[in-house]
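Collaborator request, handled under Task 6.
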Amino acid sequence: MVDKIEGVFTSETINQHYLSQVEQRFNSCNKNASQRNKKINIFSIGDVRSLKTKAASVEKKISKSLMEHDLFSIRTSKHGRLNLENLMGPLESAFSDSVNDLIGNKTIGKDSDEENLSRVKKILSLKMMSTFRNPYYISRTLKIINFGVNFILDSNEHLAALINLYKKENNIARLSKEFNVTEQQYTSWINTLIALLLTSEKDGCIIEGMIDEIFLAEEFFHSITLYTYDDNLVLLPETGMHETADYHSLTYFINLSSTSFLMIHSNVLSDLGNMKISPKLYEHIIEKCGREDKAPEYIDKMRGKKIFSSAHNNYQMLKIFNTNCVRSAKKYILFSQPKIDDELLFWQAI
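Structure tokens returned to the collaborator:
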């Protein structure tokens, strides 16, 4: 019974990546190499901000890049290693398939919006998880979503994991010091990741449910644009994506590969907390309708709508994407190239 309960967590993987290998491989500097030999260039964010185009990178094998020993391990004792590697696998596989469809098979404009939205959800599920599972963002994650030390899903697997966490046959004492958080915060973080990832036959996993809710919210309409480039110009954030927000919209900038990124721009259409419809958007709607009294009807038709588009070699948007990568990073920037050229960013905004 114990083996069955713990089976989902059983993995002997010691090198555990906080930015998945599949995300890094899409940005590798030796794309024709075998999976195990692929490499990527890593920049210290401090060097990039101070030295700019003179910042030097370190070329690393992706198998050893942005990882830590037993980062997500629940148990490391002689009884066998338990960690979250198996839970992350399905998200990573779905991400890989979806990216290959979007940029390889060019499905935007060819397949239905429903099919492409399904791909976007799978991509965003992994990318959101990449932000939550980065150990340099533990405090941020616990502010956004914190299931706490003792939270348990209605799941034998989750109960077994929590029991093993309390036994402390792991490296949490060492890791909490390394990432400058308390042991309780680290344990809460691991428990939060477990809760996000564990799948039930009835409801799926919470992280996928969170992504569904983003696109079900009728207070927004969503503009989803795929940007592609002939050359390897797109930076990879340490969290796989970055997001911006103001009082009128939310925007997710998502690295897909060294030649492409996805932008999901969600405009609010009605009051939502402190958010309100943009005055410029409202003026545009009135212009479209011809008169103001028609605006509410037009807005109702836009609620929850998803508009897909694509653009090729838009260098203004590339600079915006790359600039935000550098501005939002805490530790590292990754890139397929060994240098970050002057024309890739708005350096004055760094």
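The cover message to the collaborator said: "Residues 1-19+66-203 form one domain. The longest strand covers residues 220-228. Please let us know whether this matches your experimental observations."
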